[in-house]
Amino acid sequence: MVKILVIDDDNQMRNLIRKLLIRDGHEVFTAQDGIKGVQSFHQLKPDLIITDIVMPNKNGIELIADILISNPSQAIIAMSGGRRTFNANSHVDSNELCGVKGLLHKPFAYQQLQDAVNIALN
Fold this sequence. Notes:
This protein is an alpha/beta fold. It has a single domain, classed as Response regulator (Rossmann fold, 3-Layer(aba) Sandwich). The protein has 4 helices and 5 strands, in the order βαβαβαββα. The longest helix is centred in the first third of the chain and has 13 residues.
């Protein structure tokens, strides 16, 4: 069973992603911000992290950098929407997210989440 950590400050989004991933047979844990996400990462040692970019306390870019410094091969999917979007020319596609295995733009379809998870884990 794959262990996934979902980090998002939006409770509804966090719980929706959790439910979808559990339905796919994954073991899913959640955190509500970047600080708690880094703590959970060190405690849980997940196979995959799915993190929002725009969050209070420690944003997703800071979280990703912290994790990849000590674990450069960690599978991470970054997601964002609303306040900050990403496309081929955007800031979040830049080298700040080097090392991530996937990008999701909210709102995304269930199939997009499944595809991103499959790619990140392979």
